[in-house]
Amino acid sequence: MASVALANYAMKKGLEVLGTETIGSAQRGGSVVSHMRISDKKIHSPLVPNGRADILIGFEPIEAVRNIHFLNPKGKFIINNYPVPTIFCNMGMEEYPSEEEILGALKARCAQGYVIGASEKAKEMGTLMMTNVIMLGALAGIEPFFEKQELERVIAKLLPKKVLEQNLLAYEVGYKMVTNSEANAVTA
Predict the structure, then answer these.
(1) Per the structure, how many domains does the chain have?
(2) What are phi and psi of 53, to 5 degrees?
(3) Structural domain boundaries, residue 58
(4) Three-state SS for 23?
(5) Which end of the chain is less crowded, N or C, counting CB atoms within 10 A of the terminal residue's CB?
């Protein structure tokens, strides 16, 4: 849902949008990686080249670190601090990295970002499904290109009425997490 909302937002602004996702093994515990390119010029590939992403939105800490190479060193990141241990961690074959190790890897690539408890807030609100919308609210709070009210309108058009009110509240929660210092701001 997050990538669809962002694509719709950019297209509404009259920009070119190309994106792709790898989702093959997600239901078996694998990762999902979405690439999205937005430009006022012609885009020739949906894949973001290494070091060219302006924003990295990571829904899981290890996956964020695995994909940090896409981020421009002057870019920004928003990382959900909710760990999902790999099958190897669950089997005791490897250890999940500490928060310090994860932050160190993020800082080594990029000096500007936030680590937020989006899944924790979503659970408090009744369902982990709202993590996406909380992350979008946080994005609107750190990136001026994504105007808060306009992105909110785009999200509202994508959601069924029965979950709209709760998700708009989640969007506001995400926005406030980064604008009211509820997030762990990361700087080098």
Answers:
(1) 1
(2) -75, 135
(3) 50-187
(4) coil
(5) C
